[in-house]
Amino acid sequence: MLLAAFLVGLVSSVYGAGELSIIHHPGSLVFKGHDSLKESALPEVYSAALGLSTEQFSHWQGFYIENPFNIPEAIVTIAIDGVQDIGQNNGHHYPLLTNEDESEVFSALSRKISERYVNEKPTLVRVDFSNGLDDIHQYEIFNGIKRGNPKSVIHKHLKVDLEEDRNFLKDIALLHEIEAKIEAGAVKEDFIPDVYWFSISSLHALSDLHGSNATETQEAKQLLQEAIATLSNAFIKHYSNHVLVTVITSDASHTRLRRNVLAATLYDSNNNKSTYNLASTYSTDYPAIFNIILWFCVAMFFSILAICYVTANMDPGRDSIIYRMTSTRMKKDN
């Protein structure tokens, strides 16, 4: 058990910890267990949920399709950067090893759908809230959406005059604007797989400012949960329940930040190595050369050991011509 816990901790430190939360899914999909999943495998999971063929074999047994005639027609994902989770109790949750950026997951999934439905026009939407309205106005279905007013969001502990809090409240207001647009009939069920991907990073800065356990951070997570719930309900209604809603959280940015800070402390102001005794940089041929030398030495060692063993157990009178030709006594006897 201790070894397993150590390995889980080691993997989490390498990849960065996160969580995949299944907020809503049709009855045709059954989610079970709590096995961890690599983020790079998410395109295959989403593809399988949409009934598309998968390219890579995965040992993950987190879900299976119970009814292939009632699969989702849309995937709605909210990707949240900078936190390991948002404290959501509803839904099914899986530990996520964040070895890939969420934008790459969306790109891989949208590419698979586009290749499968060449003659149709699936709706493939990705909105990065850090880009403001630029991403929103790229898509016709979101025409008319304006930047939400942070003061319209009911809150108690967050402060609008703080930039980090204000940016987060703007994102929450924008989520509600999108939810209102969906409620107004911006999307419709067309029996072609659609993807709606929303990336939110403002919680990262807010959490860093106040602390992960601060009252402000907990309130922000609660506001985000409520916004996700209303957005999810809007999509469920207009897709007649044929929608898969997920939340992806990742603290990989914190992991990368810690590594970068550590690396920066290992160099002085003159860009010289400090006294931290950094290892030398090796060429790309090093692994091959190392393996050749290692296994040659191993083979040579056991070969010499076998020769020594056989030689030590020889019968001089029967087995070895070496003794007969070199022994002085045997020459005199002849």
Draw up the topology in text.
Blueprint lengths: L1 H14 L1 E8 L4 E3 L5 E2 L3 H8 L13 E3 L8 E8 L10 E6 L4 H15 L7 E5 L4 H4 L26 H21 L10 E7 L1 H9 L4 H24 L4 E8 L1 H14 L20 H27 L8 H6 L1 H6 L1
Parallel strand pairs: 3-6, 5-8, 5-9, 7-8
Antiparallel strand pairs: 1-6, 1-9, 2-4
Helix pairs in contact: 2-3, 5-6, 5-7, 6-7
Model description:
The protein has eleven helices and nine strands. The longest helix is centred in the C-terminal third of the chain and has 27 residues, at 286-312. A seven-stranded mixed β-sheet has the order 3-6-1-9-5-8-7, sandwiched between helices. Strands 2-4 form a two-stranded antiparallel ribbon. It has helices at 2-15, 42-49, 102-116, 133-136, 163-183, 202-210, 215-238, 252-265, 286-312, 321-326, 328-333; strands spanning 17-24, 29-31, 37-38, 63-65, 74-81, 92-97, 124-128, 194-200, 243-250. Helix 5 (163-183) packs parallel to helix 7 (215-238) and helix 6 packs antiparallel against helix 7. Residues 1-15 and 255-276 have low confidence and may be disordered. 44% of the residues lie in helices and 15% in strands. It is of the alpha/beta class.
